[in-house]
Design a protein that fits this description.
- By secondary structure, this protein is α+β, with helices and mostly antiparallel strands.
- The protein has five domains: 198 residues; 75 residues, Beta-Lactamase (2-Layer Sandwich), CATH 3.30.450.20; 98 residues, Beta-Lactamase (2-Layer Sandwich), CATH 3.30.450; 161 residues, Reverse transcriptase/Diguanylate cyclase domain (Alpha-Beta Plaits), CATH 3.30.70; 230 residues, EAL domain (TIM Barrel, Alpha-Beta Barrel).
- The protein has 30 helices and 27 strands.
- Strands 18, 19, 20, 21, 22, 23, 24, 25, 26 and 27 form a ten-stranded mixed β-sheet that branches. Strands 2-1-5-4-3 form a five-stranded antiparallel β-sheet. It has a five-stranded antiparallel β-sheet with strand order 7-6-10-9-8, with helices on both faces.
- The radius of gyration is 67 Å and the shape is rod-shaped.
- The site of one calcium ion has 4 residues, from strand 23.
- It holds the Pfam family PAS_9.
């Protein structure tokens, strides 16, 4: 019997541990262990009949009662707190106190009826509390009832044993052990299986994938709704029937317009098929395979070079055209095809694409063999899996660029001198550094027009080429950064870039360069006008050019190199103002003739010289203030004719005057219609040509040409007299006198002024005898006093001009004088 109980308990313990039931309730372990110990003690007691063992058995056995209470709580899912356990255990100890007193007085413990009664009552109370716990527990009703039934039966049996029968501990232990064993099987294990079953169903049904479970023979054991839908099977009709179809692992099937991938899981006793819907992925990848194919075909066959790069510039893919264009052997960083001076631009392009999504640039890239390639870059941004890439297309535009550069060369270069034209140099001036000072030097060939007309255009062209060569060589020799341009006709622009950061230094350098340049140019045996301006790019371009041009015109005027300065500007501004006033004066006929008498020794007025005056706001302004401008601007012709008309009118009214001297500017005499204009007016006032004397100066012979010659012949033929003015100054070449048909000679007042000088007297004597020889009338000018007159008369002169005889005066004053 003992052996049987022990075996049951051992099996029980092993089973509990093996199934890991202790996880459910520690109380089970407690109960089973106690039963085991009790059985063991009972076996010992049999042999020794020891009371101590029996006593020990009692105490250990009694702990089963509170243990049952704890078990009920566990089943209910509540945790027993220690207070409750202690409270429940107190009666056991109370019951054991009398036991202690009676100890040693034979085996009265369980025979004592009061004690037994109390024990049964205590057990009943605990059981009752435990039952209420079990009834509350969230387990199947049948299980609850089973527990209560078994427990009640057990208690009833034990109670009967204790109260009425002589105790049989072994029998009690046996029945307790057995009932626990049964309880465990019936209650615990079954409830566990239920949970697992439910879980399995739940899982199977809630799975979005289709699941079908077959046994080894292919009979359907179970399947979920998805699987029945996919396979078009009714659950009740297929269960336990053979499945006609069979599938391979990873097979893709197409059912009800849906793609599924099949996963086959083989077990020892069966097979599970898992069907997963992959329609979306299939369609996605289908679309993508088309797109991919299209893309790769395009990528391969597009005539342009294409590269896909990362934002860091790493080429991750490119077509053959790309490697061909840039002579690449392997995929490198995009930087490897960027010329060093364009590195920052390349980075900029990438940034622009990242920011705006696209960018287009026309720029230069270099191939691996070092050759430059003009390309048009078009780049767009795109994303794959949150990663950003740049799709960059490089179109080779080298050919177009070559063409257009040839064109722009044509447009920007002067074919004659192979220097740049004005358009180019002006464009370049806009690109100069705004930090440094630069110098624009304007070089003009003196009298180029004349050279061209006298020596021919071929010579002129050759001269221009020589000038440009000299300038080019000079640049090379001096190591200057210069743009040379033939800006117009014979005007070269010499732009020296980045001279200095300091304006004074830049000015000094410019002066130095001009001095050297002048020296080099002098080898060409020509005279040059040089005007320049030292400037910073912050100034307005037009203003820079204006100032340089101004300096050049000033240089032409002064016959010296001119570097633009504030003083020059002021001077020029003044002149400009005056010019404007003069223009207005012409319009208002403010230029009027004054007449200065030409008289005999006894002060008899024979003739007069017409001297121009500007009558401005009642003031009389002398010709030195404006004549220059009138000549430069060629307004002298009109003004002179205006005056001439006034004089002719005067002459008509004063026929006593034998002759009138008219000053003719070299500008006028070079004009082909010069004689006719004057003759017309003379005719208009009916003035005989014998009364007209035209005064010209030696300067005229500097530009003596056919027109001048013809004009003079024409005037002479009409009977007009010619006078060589200011004789004795300038060249004073006597050959002029011999070759030109002069009638009168005006001796410069310088000789008269210093008449006390013996040298001058001799010269005057010589001039007088020459005039006698050539049959010319000589008139000394600037006679201011009687003494001068005396000497001049002594020499032999008959006609005189000067303040001593009368100052230049208005027509009205002069008419009073002669009448
Ligand atoms: P010019 O032809 O030698 O004229 C004589 C100049 O000597 C005049 O000066 C006259 O005022 C000045 N003069 C006359 N007598 C004396 C004198 O006793 N002492 C001094 N110190 N000077 C005397 P003006 O009027 O100022 O004319 C200056 C020059 O302007 C002229 O020199 C002439 O070359 C030019 N000119 C004047 N009127 C005309 C004109 O209508 N047409 C052209 N083309 N030139 C003119
Ligand atoms: Ca004169
Ligand atoms: Ca004169």
């Amino acid at each position: 019997m003992i052996l049987a109980v022990l075996t049951i308990n051992i099996v029980f313990v092993i089973y509990l541990l093996e199934r890991r039931l202790y996880r459910l309730s520690k109380v089970f372990i407690h109960v089973v262990s106690i039963l085991f110990i009790l059985t063991f003690l009972e076996a010992l007691k049999f042999k020794t009949n020891n009371l101590y063992i029996q006593y020990l058995e009692n105490i250990i056995g009694l702990t089963l009662i509170p243990a049952f209470y704890v078990f009920s709580k566990d089943i209910n899912g509540e945790k027993t707190n220690i207070k409750e356990r202690i409270l429940i255990s107190i009666p056991i100890f109370l019951l054991n106190i009398p036991n202690l007193f009676l100890f040693g007085k034979s085996d009265i413990l369980l025979e004592n009826r009061i004690f037994s009664m109390l024990l049964v009552i205590y057990g009943a109370i605990i059981l009752f509390l435990s039952f209420s716990n079990i009834l509350k527990a969230n387990i199947k009703k049948s299980i609850k009832h089973s527990i209560i039934l078994i427990s009640s039966t057990l208690l009833f049996y034990i109670s009967l044993e204790i109260l009425f029968f002589s105790k049989n501990t072994l029998r009690i232990l046996f029945s307790v052990s057995l009932s626990f064993f049964i309880t465990m099987f019936i209650l615990i294990r079954r409830s566990w299986l239920n949970i697992l079953d439910e879980l399995k169903d739940e899982l199977l049904m809630s799975f979005s994938d289709g699941i079908i479970v077959l046994d080894n023979q292919g009979y359907v054991l179970d399947l979920n709704k998805t699987a029945s839908k996919i396979l078009n099977l009714n659950f009740n009709n297929i269960i336990n029937k053979k499945l006609e179809e069979s599938f391979n692992n990873d097979e893709v099937i197409f059912k009800n317009n849906t793609y599924y991938i099949v996963k086959k899981l083989s077990f020892k006793n069966g097979i599970v098929y898992l069907f997963r819907n992959i329609t979306k992925e299939m369609e996605y990848s289908k679309k993508h395979t088309i797109a991919d194919k299209l893309f790769s075909t395009l990528f391969k066959n597009i005539p342009d070079a294409v590269a896909i790069i990362t934002p860091k510039g790493k080429i991750i893919e490119c077509n053959r055209q790309f490697t061909n264009l840039f002579k690449l052997k392997r995929l490198e960083n995009i930087e490897s095809i960027v010329p060093s001076y364009l590195k920052s631009e390349s980075k900029l392009i990438i940034l622009e694409v990242l920011k705006n999504g696209y960018a287009t640039y026309e720029t230069i890239r270099k191939a691996k063999d070092g050759k430059s390639v003009f390309v048009k870059i078009r780049a767009v941004k795109f994303e794959i899996d949150d990663k950003v890439f740049l799709y960059t297309i490089y179109t080779d535009i080298s050919k177009e660029k070559m063409l257009s550069s040839k064109l722009s060369n044509l447009l920007e270069k002067d074919p004659l001198t192979d220097t740049f034209n004005k358009t180019y140099i002006v464009k370049q001036m806009g690109n100069l550094s705004s930090l440094l000072y630069h110098s624009l030097i304007l070089i003009d060939i003196k009298g180029f027009k004349w050279i061209n007309s006298i020596k021919g255009h071929k010579f002129g062209d050759q001269l221009l080429r020589e000038v440009s060569n000299t300038l080019k060589e000079f640049t090379k020799k001096e190591g200057l950064d210069v743009i040379i341009s033939r800006a117009q006709n014979d005007e070269f622009w010499f732009l020296i870039k980045d001279l200095d950061i300091d304006p004074i230094n830049a000015l000094e350098k410019t002066k130095e360069i001009i001095a050297k340049l002048k020296k080099d140019l002098s080898t060409l045996e020509q005279n040059f006008f040089i005007g320049s301006y030292v400037f910073k790019n912050s100034e307005d371009l037009e203003e820079i050019i204006r100032k340089a041009t101004l300096s050049l015109s000033k240089a032409k005027e002064s016959n010296k190199e001119v570097i633009y300065s504030k003083e020059i500007e002021d001077q020029i501004q003044k002149e400009i103002k005056k010019e404007n006033l003069i223009k207005i004066a012409i319009r208002n006929q403010e230029f009027i003739p004054f007449l200065q008498p030409i008289s005999t020794e006894d002060r008899k007025i024979i003739g007069a010289e017409v001297l121009i005056r500007w009558k401005k706001d009642g003031k009389i302004i002398p010709p030195s203030e404006f004549l220059n401008f009138l000549e430069k601007s060629r307004k002298i012709t009109d003004v002179s004719l205006q005056i001439f008309e006034k004089v002719m009118d005067f002459l008509k009214k004063n026929p006593k005057l034998k002759f009138i001297d008219i000053n003719i500017s070299p500008v006028q005499i070079k004009e082909p219609d010069f004689p006719i204009n004057y003759l017309k007016i003379m005719e208009k006032y009916n003035i005989p040509s014998q009364k007209i004397v035209f005064e010209i100066t030696e300067n005229l012979f500097l530009s003596y040409d056919n027109t001048v010659k013809e004009n003079i012949s024409r005037l002479k033929a009409e009977g007009i007299k010619l006078c060589l003015d200011d004789f004795g100054t300038g060249y004073s070449s006597l050959s002029y006198l011999r070759n030109l048909p002069f009638d009168i000679l005006k001796i410069d007042r310088e000789f008269v002024k210093n008449i006390d000088d013996e040298k001058n007297i001799n010269l005057l004597k010589a001039i007088y005898s020459i005039c006698e020889t050539f049959n010319l009338i000589a008139i000394p000018e600037g006679v201011e006093n009687a003494r001068q007159l005396e000497i001049l008369s002594m020499i032999g002169f008959k006609l005189f001009q000067g303040y001593y005889f009368g100052k230049p005066q208005s027509l009205s004053e002069f008419s009073k004088l002669i009448n």
